[in-house]
Design brief:
single chain; about 375 residues; alpha+beta; Nuclear Transport Factor 2, Chain: A; endopeptidase fold (from Nostoc punctiforme); 10-stranded antiparallel beta sheet; two-stranded antiparallel sheet; 12 strands; globular; disordered N terminus
Length: about 375
């Protein structure tokens, strides 16, 4: 119980209580796919409006006769404004978003009301407006508790509680520092440095979850508990990646199979970072807000360029590590991209969702070479 309480502090998440799985009654079972398609259409329109910065398109999607619908609309509006600001600051142009909704549980409350627990998987396609403008994309997977409501022959979003991939604290005008984030071609390390790091990256891509591009049918590794709805799963996922990369478990850092939980250093972000530094499994490359990391160091190369695939980025707000992600490579213009849990990310630009007050720790991970024997649990 102590460890499960500690995990509440690991990742930025909107915590909404325990997950309760419900099923539609027999009379409505045949309409399950119809309800899912209705929801998918609403979410596709919502995400398309967000990508285009079309704030006027949002109100018609929400049932604002209730507090839940009004709150959901406000959250969607804030999210739209943040993404619009971030894209402008980074000189990035979004071109298309493709959404798939996976319903994990559904219950029909009435002919006009349906509740759905779902994973919203969105593939965002974009280009840089300067530099290498070849098309690129990233995946986001977000876990929701939706309610859809029918009125006047139309369906609306009446409730949308979710684990937020765009940190709630960042939704402010001018949140992103205007800057071109780029690692020069000659400085990019596109591949892992050794076999252990390669294994870690394969694991990250296999089990990164609901984001498009992730493997394992877009689901987490079932050998570990899922903390998405109880504080966030980002640190649990990073620990799994490090284990897959050959780091042996210790008394302080391990997954207890019998109790189905990890130690505090396994599941709690500040504790994991402290443990990795204390045991010299990582060393600090650089730290600070975005302008510091883009500052040229020796040879005119930004500090950010010292990152390599398999390294870890820690996100710090109000003096505390609140999120962890693993660097998996670069997009065509040299923008570092990451995988993470809670929300699930696949090759997403590393700072999307964070604001000008966020500080970052860039951590060089010293993967064993040769790798120490360990299993990754199928």
């Amino acid at each position: 119980m102590r460890v499960r309480l500690l995990v509440l502090m690991t990742c930025i998440a909107m915590v909404l209580g325990g997950l309760v799985v419900v099923r539609p009654s027999g009379a409505h079972e045949g309409r399950r796919e119809e309800y899912v398609q209705i929801l998918q259409s609403l979410v596709q329109r919502q995400d398309t409006a967000t990508m285009r910065g079309d704030v006027k398109a949002l109100p018609g999607l929400y049932w604002t006769e209730e507090d839940g619908g009004r709150t959901a609309l406000q959250n969607a509006t804030d999210r739209l404004l943040y993404i619009k600001d971030w894209a402008k600051a980074r000189a990035i142009r979004f071109e298309r978003v493709v959404v798939h909704v996976r319903a994990d549980a559904l219950t029909v409350r009435s002919p006009s009301r349906v509740s759905i627990i779902a994973a919203d998987s969105a593939r965002y396609e974009y280009r840089h407006e300067v530099g290498d403008t070849k098309p690129a994309w990233f995946g986001l997977g977000v876990y929701h508790r939706y309610a859809i409501h029918k009125s006047g022959g139309r369906w609306y979003l009446a409730q949308d509680h979710f684990i937020d991939p765009l940190n709630q604290d960042t939704r402010l005008g001018g949140a992103a520092h205007p800057a071109r984030v780029r690692v020069p071609d000659r400085e990019r390390r596109q591949g892992p440095d050794n076999a252990a790091a390669a294994r870690a990256l394969r694991y990250a891509g296999q089990y990164c979850g609901a984001a498009p591009g992730c493997g394992h049918d877009n689901r987490y590794n079932p050998a570990y508990a899922n903390y998405v709805w109880s504080g966030g799963d980002c640190t649990n996922f990073i620990s799994q990646i490090l284990r897959a990369g050959g780091f042996p478990e210790t008394a302080r850092w391990h997954w207890d199979q019998a109790r189905d939980e990890g130690t505090s250093a396994w599941v709690n972000a500040p504790h994991l970072v402290g443990y990795l530094e204390m045991t010299h499994r990582v060393s600090l490359i650089a730290q600070g807000p975005m302008p510091v990391l883009l500052k040229a160091a020796a040879g005119g190369i930004p500090l950010l360029a010292r990152l390599r695939p398999g390294d870890i980025i820690a996100y710090v707000e109000r003096g505390r590590v609140v999120h962890l992600a693993v660097v998996v490579g670069y997009d065509p213009d040299g923008y570092p991209v990451v995988d993470s849990h809670s929300a699930d990310r696949f090759r997403e630009p590393w700072d999307l969702g964070w604001d000008r007050t966020t500080r970052y720790l860039l951590l060089d991970v010293h993967y064993p070479d040769p790798p120490e024997p360990t299993s990754t649990r199928p």
